[in-house]
UniProtKB/TrEMBL annotation:
<dbReference type="InterPro" id="IPR007197">
    <property type="entry name" value="rSAM"/>
</dbReference>
<dbReference type="Pfam" id="PF02810">
    <property type="entry name" value="SEC-C"/>
</dbReference>
<dbReference type="InterPro" id="IPR034491">
    <property type="entry name" value="Anaerob_Ser_sulfatase-maturase"/>
</dbReference>
<protein>
    <submittedName>
        <fullName>Radical SAM protein</fullName>
    </submittedName>
</protein>
<keyword id="KW-0411">Iron-sulfur</keyword>
<dbReference type="Pfam" id="PF13186">
    <property type="entry name" value="SPASM"/>
</dbReference>
<keyword id="KW-0408">Iron</keyword>
<dbReference type="GO" id="GO:0046872">
    <property type="term" value="F:metal ion binding"/>
</dbReference>
<comment type="similarity">
    <text>Belongs to the radical SAM superfamily. Anaerobic sulfatase-maturating enzyme family.</text>
</comment>
<dbReference type="InterPro" id="IPR013785">
    <property type="entry name" value="Aldolase_TIM"/>
</dbReference>
<keyword id="KW-0949">S-adenosyl-L-methionine</keyword>
<feature type="domain" description="Radical SAM core">
    <location>
        <begin position="5"/>
        <end position="235"/>
    </location>
</feature>
<dbReference type="InterPro" id="IPR023867">
    <property type="entry name" value="Sulphatase_maturase_rSAM"/>
</dbReference>
<keyword id="KW-0479">Metal-binding</keyword>
<dbReference type="Pfam" id="PF04055">
    <property type="entry name" value="Radical_SAM"/>
</dbReference>
<dbReference type="InterPro" id="IPR058240">
    <property type="entry name" value="rSAM_sf"/>
</dbReference>
<dbReference type="InterPro" id="IPR023885">
    <property type="entry name" value="4Fe4S-binding_SPASM_dom"/>
</dbReference>
């Protein structure tokens, strides 16, 4: 979901586009989005004229960076020619020296040598959905005939590896794997997957945006899962695997901030586009009342100026009472507004459904995160002082040499003094 560009009014904006609407060649039993049962029929891909219109408009607003995330259904069903057209239009309309980033979320089963060569050429970052070892994955990620897809996904990953494509693994955490953190981590290590992220499994009611998200796992189950996964990730103070949730926590302990929107203070400026051009502020807020317009009909300026957008952005900072005084607020920022049960006028809400999970993992990991982050910051500090400051330690009010962006006195000064580095 990441990426930046400067949108209308100086706002940064990334774009997630549902390339083929809900069309998908799998029929995962927990999927709340696709209803075609793994038999997509004629593919509803983004229309060429719409793609051209939007690219032109969007690129006019960029300021050095343009970020796209292509999702489905299964986006590879759009065909290679669609993506060739998309990257050609990006290049055609991007102002000179624009950095264009493309991310693609796929079930991995349709990846071929040709696809991998294309993805490498244009430096796509690929997210592959894989729920763990074969037995766990195949129980739920099945095709229209009910057959598991694990072998096909692993075959697709083989193509990515042979072409050196950057990819990460996205694992949905559901009833079938929430109590099996150790097996998942062992699987990632065995398969040499070095970047993974977890997504709790939502159920179909999630599309009713006037109700809070409903999940298959309980907050306690997810909390225990995160704690067990953390112990293995920590690896005696020398993590070998990048797990997005823990990496985000570590960033905060290193005086930076999380990159996951859920644990930042504000929802990012993002447009989620349906295949037909309908625009929404977030993937979790796709519903008529949150529609911002249609990029085939309305200009980006008009879409970003929609009062619906402002209403959406106001939700996350409207923290429930327990969050305001929570000791973990800097790590959590109240989670995701989609997971809060709101009053009718949306002025107040209960905490995020996963509040108990977050409290469990934050308390469980706190001491070890402090120690890990402290060591990393000092190493970074020393190395930067040597490389960039000719060995001279910054003044109290100068930016800290660890790179956090904070003043030295508000960042590493105490640690540096106790380690006798000054
Ligand atoms: S509503 Fe939730 S998922 Fe959407 S941008 Fe905000 S924090 Fe992220
Ligand atoms: S842990 Fe719970 S109470 Fe604390 S900020 Fe997060 S959601 Fe709010």
């Amino acid at each position: 979901m990441g990426g930046l560009c400067t949108g209308a009014g100086g706002r940064s904006l990334s774009v997630m586009w549902k390339t083929v609407s809900e069309d998908c060649n799998l029929a995962c039993d927990y999927c709340y989005y696709s209803t075609c049962g793994g038999k997509p029929g004629k593919i509803n891909r983004i229309d060429s004229a719409l793609l051209d219109t939007f690219m032109k408009d969007y690129m006019r607003h960029t300021d050095g960076v343009a970020a796209f995330a292509w999702q489905g259904g299964e986006p590879l069903l759009a065909g290679l020619d669609f993506f060739e057209e998309a990257v050609a239009l990006q290049a055609k309309y991007a102002p000179p020296r624009t950095v264009i980033s493309n991310a693609l979320q796929t079930n991995g089963t349709l990846l071929t040598d040709k696809w991998a060569a294309f993805l490498k050429k244009y430096r796509f970052l690929v997210g592959v959905s894989l729920d763990g070892p074969k037995e766990i994955h195949d129980a739920r990620r099945v095709d229209a005939r009910g057959q598991g897809s694990h072998d096909r996904v692993m075959n697709g990953i083989g193509h990515l590896r042979r072409h050196g494509v950057d990819f990460n693994i996205l694992t949905v955490i559901h009833k079938g794997n929430v109590s099996r953190a150790a097996e998942l981590i062992a699987f990632y290590k065995r398969e040499k997957f070095d970047h993974v992220q977890f997504i709790p499994c939502m159920d179909f009611r999630s599309q009713e945006t006037n109700r809070p998200g409903v999940y298959e796992i309980t907050p306690e189950e997810y909390g225990v899962f995160l704690c067990e996964a953390f112990d293995l990730w920590y690896n005696g103070g020398a993590p070998e695997l990048s797990v997005r949730f823990f990496d985000n926590m570590l960033s905060v302990y290193m005086n930076g901030q999380a990159e996951l929107c859920i644990h930042r203070s504000a929802c990012p400026d993002m447009l989620v586009l349906e295949q037909n051009g309908d625009a929404f502020p977030c993937d979790f807020f796709i519903g008529e009342e949150w529609k911002l317009g249609n990029v085939g009909v309305h200009s980006l300026d008009d879409i970003l100026a929609s009062p619906v957008y402002d209403e959406f952005k106001a939700l996350k900072p409207r923290l429930p009472e327990p969050c305001r005084s929570c000791q973990w607020k800097a790590l959590c920022h109240g989670g995701c507004p989609r997971n809060r049960n709101w009053s009718d006028n949306r002025k107040t809400s209960e905490p995020d459904y996963f509040c108990a999970s977050y409290q469990m993992i934050y308390a469980h990991a706190d001491e070890r995160m402090k120690s890990l982050a402290g060591g990393l910051r000092l190493r970074q500090f020393e190395s930067n002082v040597r490389r960039y400051l000719k060995g001279k330690v910054p003044g109290r009010n100068d930016p800290c040499a660890c790179g956090s962006g904070r003043k030295f006195k508000q960042c590493c000064l105490d640690d540096v003094q106790s380690a006798s580095l000054v």
